Amino acid sequence: MDWRERVAAEGSRGDRTGHFEREFYRGIYLIRRLEETLLELFAAGRLSGTTHTCLGQEANAVAVAFHLTDADVVVSNHRCHGHYLARTGDLEGLLAEIRGLERGLCSGKGGSQHLCAPNFYTNGIQGGIVPLATGMALAEKQRGSGAIVTVFIGDGTLGQGVVYESFNIAALWAAPLLVVVEANGWAQSTPTPRAMAGSMRQRLEAFGLPCGMVEGTDALEIHRAAGAAVGQVRETGRPAGLIIRTQRLGPHSKGDDSRSPEELETLRERDPLPRLAASLDPEQRRAIEAECERRLAAALTATEGPL
Amino acid sequence: MDWRERVAAEGSRGDRTGHFEREFYRGIYLIRRLEETLLELFAAGRLSGTTHTCLGQEANAVAVAFHLTDADVVVSNHRCHGHYLARTGDLEGLLAEIRGLERGLCSGKGGSQHLCAPNFYTNGIQGGIVPLATGMALAEKQRGSGAIVTVFIGDGTLGQGVVYESFNIAALWAAPLLVVVEANGWAQSTPTPRAMAGSMRQRLEAFGLPCGMVEGTDALEIHRAAGAAVGQVRETGRPAGLIIRTQRLGPHSKGDDSRSPEELETLRERDPLPRLAASLDPEQRRAIEAECERRLAAALTATEGPL
Amino acid sequence: MSTRCAAALNAALAEALERWDETLLLGEDLADPYGGAFRITRGLSTRFPDRVLSSPISEAALFGVSAGLALRGRRPVLEIMFGDFITLGLDQVINHIAKFREMYDEQVRVPLVVRTPMGGRRGYGPTHSQCLEKLLVGIPGLTVVAGSEYHDLHRLLLAAIASDDPVFFIENKLLYSRFQQRGRDGRLGPFLWEEGDSTYPTVQLRAADRCSVSVVTWGGMAHLARQAAEQLAIEHETMIEVLILSRLAPVDLTPLLASVRRTGALVVAEEGTLTGGVGAEIVARVQHEAFSSLRGPARRVAARDAVIPAARHLEDAVLPQVEDITDACLAAAAGTEH
Amino acid sequence: MSTRCAAALNAALAEALERWDETLLLGEDLADPYGGAFRITRGLSTRFPDRVLSSPISEAALFGVSAGLALRGRRPVLEIMFGDFITLGLDQVINHIAKFREMYDEQVRVPLVVRTPMGGRRGYGPTHSQCLEKLLVGIPGLTVVAGSEYHDLHRLLLAAIASDDPVFFIENKLLYSRFQQRGRDGRLGPFLWEEGDSTYPTVQLRAADRCSVSVVTWGGMAHLARQAAEQLAIEHETMIEVLILSRLAPVDLTPLLASVRRTGALVVAEEGTLTGGVGAEIVARVQHEAFSSLRGPARRVAARDAVIPAARHLEDAVLPQVEDITDACLAAAAGTEH
Ligand SMILES: Cc1ncc(C[n+]2csc(CCOP(=O)(O)OP(=O)(O)O)c2C)c(N)n1
Ligand SMILES: Cc1ncc(C[n+]2csc(CCOP(=O)(O)OP(=O)(O)O)c2C)c(N)n1
Ligand SMILES: [Mg+2]
Ligand SMILES: [Mg+2]
Known about the structure:
The complex is a heterotetramer, with two copies of chain A (307 residues) and two copies of chain C (338 residues).
Chain A: H1 3-13, H2 19-43, H3 58-66, E1 73-76, H4 81-88, H5 91-98, E2 116-117, E3 120-122, H6 129-143, E4 149-154, H7 161-172, E5 177-183, E6 186-187, E7 190-191, H8 200-205, E8 211-214, H9 219-236, E9 240-245, H10 261-269, H11 272-278, H12 282-302
Parallel strand pairs in A: 1-3, 1-4, 4-5, 5-9, 8-9
Antiparallel strand pairs in A: 2-3, 6-7
Chain C: H1 5-19, E1 23-27, H2 44-47, E2 52-54, H3 59-71, E3 75-79, H4 90-97, H5 100-103, E4 113-118, H6 134-137, E5 143-146, H7 153-162, E6 167-172, E7 187-188, E8 191-195, E9 203-206, E10 213-217, H8 221-236, E11 240-244, E12 247-249, H9 254-263, E13 266-273, H10 278-289, E14 299-303, H11 312-318, H12 322-334
Parallel strand pairs in C: 1-2, 1-3, 3-4, 4-6, 5-6, 10-11, 10-13, 13-14
Antiparallel strand pairs in C: 5-12, 7-8, 8-9, 9-11
Helix pairs in contact in C: 1-7, 3-4, 8-12
Residues 154-156, 184, 186-187 of chain A line the site of one magnesium ion.
C-alpha cells in the first residue's frame, strides 16, 4: 500500500488517529494558499496573462487524488491548479509555469491552463478534453495497464456537445473513464440554471454513465463519494460520473466577480476548509499550515523571475 | 379549416368515410413510387450523384405534415424527399432538382439532399440542422407568427453533439421546436445498438424535451402520435420530441445494403403501406395509385433533361 | 476624437438594437453586470433585456441557432468570446451559413454577424491568443471584416449588421482599450490620411514625400505598422505607405495596387502565423496584377509557424514585432532578393 | 503496376495493422461487410476485429478520442467519411491535436493519421465535394499529405502511420478507382519521370525537350495536369514540367524552385476554391525565392470561389478543368501579364 492508498483506506475507515484528516487538510490548505497567492501576485501586477483559481473547490481535487494510483491519468481544464497539486505535489513546477519560467512544467509555453506532466494533462478549451480523456482511457484498457482516467469538468461545460459524443463512445466502447463534474453553480458570469435545462445527472445516465452525486461539502463525504466512483470505474472497467455540488469562492479568473456579497457569504458557509480545520487538533493544524506556508514561500523564492 | 386540418381532424376522429385513410395512402404511395423510380433511374445510369430514399418511412413524413399549417417550418436531412413531398406535393420541382435541371427547386445547385422551398430546408450534414431549426423556432416565436418548427433526424444522428447543445438551448429559451427522430435502427451500415449507449428517449428528456414514442408502424398510430406532439409544441410553445420506430426498406443510398435478406423480410412485415392499402376499398385504392402513377409519369416527362 | 474602440463598438451595438427590432445579441456571458468577457455588450442587456441573450457554452450550436434566426428574418449578432473558439463552429460556418444563399439558389439570405476578439500579446497562452482569420477568408460566401482603431468602428460594425449576408467581424483584443485614430483634413499625425468611401474602406497613411514601400495590414498590426512607418522615417529616412484594410474577404486591392504601382515594393504584415495566411493571398494577387511594378519580391511579416506561448518573452519571440516590419521594409526598399 | 489506388491504401492499412500492434482504425461504417463508405477498410475488421472500430456519427469526438489514444501510445488512423466533415473536428485539430507537442514543451507526441476523401466531379453536391486542405496547411504542427496515383500510395500512407506527429492524409475521391501510375527507368508514358527520395516526395513529369512552364499540383488535379501536359505538347508544341506534391505542409519547394529556375514560369493547379488556397502560399513563396527567374506573374488555376453545385454541368463550371490549366500555361509561357 502506497501513501495514497493508505490515506484513502484510513479515510474510508473513519480513521481514529486523525492522520487522514490531517493529510486531507494539508492538501486543501496548500492549494488554497497557492491560489490566494496567485491572485495577490496578479493584483500586484507581478503576473501576466490570466488564471482561474479553484478557491472553495480544493477538496474535490484532493479527495479524488487520494483514490488514484500513479498509473492513473488525470485530465483537467482551465481551473486545474488544484487537480495538479493534489496529484503531484509539484508546487514549484506549477508556480514556475504560471510565472513563465524555463523551469516550469512546460517551460512557460502552456501557462496557467495548459499543463502537462506524466499522466496529467489540461487544456483551456471547454469540453474538448472529454473526448481526449475517453481516448486515453481506451488506450489504457487496450494496453491492459489497469489505469483509469479521471476527467474534471465544470457544470457550464455541460453545454458542449462533444461531451455527450464522448460519453456515448466511452459507454459503447467501455472506457475506464471517470467524469467528475464540479458543479459550482456558475460558468464565468452565468448561473447554471440559465445555461442548463433538464437534469445534470440524467445527462450522464442517458448516455450510459451511472452517476453519483455529492450534495454536501463535507470533505469526508466528498472523499467517500470519490472513492466509490473511482472504485466503480476500476472494477467495472466502464465509465461513470460523479457530480459534486461545490462552490467557487473566488472570481472566475482574476477580478471578474459580479456576485453579490450576500451570495458570496452563503457560499463561504459551504467552504469545506474551515470545517475540516475545526476537526483537527489546533496544534497539529497550525503545524500543517506553517509547513504549507514554508513550502509556498520557498517555491515563491525559487521561482522569482521575469514577470 | 384548410385541407390539412380537415384531414388531420378526420384522422383523430377515426373517420368513417375513409377519406382520411385515402389521403394518407395517397401521400405515402406517391413518395414510395418516387423513391422506387429514383433508384431505377440510378440503376439505369440516368441519374448521377447520390440519393437517400425513404422507402418504408413515408408514413412518418405524411403523418407529421397532416398536422402542420402552411406557416409552420420543416427542416430535414439527407433522407428528405418524403418530407418535402408530404409538405409541398411539388413532385416536379423535386424531381427536376434531383435531375439537375434549371427548373429544380434550387436550379440543380442543391440536388437530392440540399433542398429549399418556402418554410422548408434540408442539408446533408448530420446534426447541423438541429441548431438551425432551433434558431428558426426562436425567430418564429419572437415574430409572434405562431408557427412551429419540425426537424427530422435519424437515430444515427443522435451521435452528434450539436444536437444536444441545441436541445438545451431550445429548452432554455422555449423554442417551439418539434424534434422527430426517425429511428430506423441503422445509420448507413451501422446498427443503432452499436452506435448508441443509454436510452434514446432519456437523451431528449435529460435536456428538458418531453418525448413521445411510437413503437408500432400502423400509419394511424403514427398519425395520432404526431398530432399529439405537434399539438404539445403548439400549445406550450416549448420544444418536444417524438421518436418513431421505423424501418428503412431500401439501401442507405444507392446500392449499399449489406443487410441479410431475412432481416429485410422482417422489416418489410412492418411496412405501413400494405396494411394501409388493405384497409382501403380496392377500387378507390387503385384509383389513387393510378393517379399517383400518372403524376409521376407526367413529372418524369416534364423533367426529361440532361443527366 | 477620444472614443475608445470598446465604446465605439458598444455604441454601434446599441444603435443597431435601437434601430432594428430584428437585431439580437447572442453569446456567452453577455448579460449585465458582466457585459461580455471584454465588456463590449455592457449595459445592453439592461436596456434590451429580451434581445441580449447570455447563452450556454455551446459555440457550435450558437452558430447554428444564429443562422436559423437569420434565415427567418432576425438579424443576430453573435459574440464568440475568443476567436480561438470559432473552430468549434466551423462546420456551421462552412457547410451551412456560408453555403445557404448560393446552394439554395438565392432563395434565402443570412444576415448574421459574428463578432470575435482575436490576437495575442496579453499572455493568454496557446488557446486564447490566435489570429485565425486565415480560416475564414477562403470560404466562399463569407465577408470577413477586421476592425482597427484607424477605422470608424461604429460605422463599420453597423454596416456589418446592416448587411444581408454573413459577416465575421474581427476585433483585435488590444484594440479595445485604444482610442479611435481618425484623420482630419487629410492628415493624421505626421501622415497624409486617406480613406476610401466604400462601406469597408482601406485607410492609407503615408508620408508626404515619395514612398518606397507599400505595407498592407489590418487589425492589431495596424498599430505596429504605424510605429514602423515612424521609425523608418526617423531612423532610416525611408518613407512608406501603410494601407489598413477593413475587409479581408472579399478583398478589394484597388488602393493597394495603386500604391504598389507607386512604390514598387510590397510588405504584408499580419499577426497570424505565416503559412497559409491572408498575406499569401494578397501576395499572390498583387504579383499577378502588378507584376511589372514590383522591383523585388513581396515580403510577408507574420507570426512564426508555431504555438503562441503563454510566457510573455516567449510570446514576443513568436509574434511579429515592429522591427520585423522595419526590417522587411528596408529589404523591400532596397529591392534585394531574400 | 496495375494496382488500383483503393487497393494500395487498403494494403497499407493492413500492413500497418499487422506490423504495429498499436495501430487502430476508427471511423464511421468501417466494419465489414461495408468496409467504409469508399470501401478502403474492406476486410480489415474481419482480420483485426478488435482494432477496426465502426463509430457513432461523432466527428468532433472521434478526433479527440483518436488524439487521446495517440497521446497514450496507440497509433490511431481515423477515417473521416467525407473531407467536408473535418470542419466538425477543427477545434480538436487546431486547439488540441496540433498544439500538444509544442504547447506541452515536447513532453508528448501525437502519432495520429486522419485519412479523408476530398474532391468533386461526382455530383455529390455542396456538402460532399469540397477540397478543404486550405484549412489545414496553415495550422502549425500539422503535416498535410495529399496522395495521387503518381505516388506509391502504399508507401506514403505507411510513412504517415509511422510518423510520430499528426498527419492529414487526403485522398481525392476519383483516385480510388484509378490505377497507380509509376515511372520506370526514368520514364512514364511520353514523360521523363523523377521522384525525390524523401519520405513524401514530389513527383516530376516533364517533356524531354526544354520546358517553358512549371505546373505544380497535387491530389486529384495531377490527373488533369498530366492531360494538360499532353494536350499542350500535341496541340500547342508547348512543353511543361508537372510537379506533383505529396506533402503540402510543411511544404518542401526545392524541386519546384529548381524547375521554375529552368522554366521561368509558374502555374499552380488546385481543385479547392481559389481564395486563400494552398496555391496562394506556393505563389507567395516562389515569388520570394525565385523572383528574378520569373518571366511573368505566377498564375493560379483553382475552383471558382463558389459553392459546388450538385448538377454535373454546373459543377463542371465551378471546378477547374484541363482547359483552365492549358490556358494558364499558354499565358504563362508567353510571359504576358494577366
Ligand atoms: C470552448 C470554450 N468556450 C468558452 C470558454 C471561456 N470560458 C472559460 S471558463 C468558462 C466557464 C466554464 O464554466 P464551468 O464549466 O462551469 O467551469 P468553472 O469555470 O465554473 O469551473 C468559459 C465560458 C472556453 N475556455 N472554451
Ligand atoms: C456530419 C456527417 N457525418 C457523416 C455523414 C454521412 N452520413 C450520411 S447519412 C449517415 C447515416 C445517418 O444515419 P441516421 O441519422 O440514422 O439516418 P438514416 O440514414 O438512418 O435515415 C451518415 C453517416 C454526414 N452526412 N454528415
Ligand atoms: Mg461552473
Ligand atoms: Mg437511422
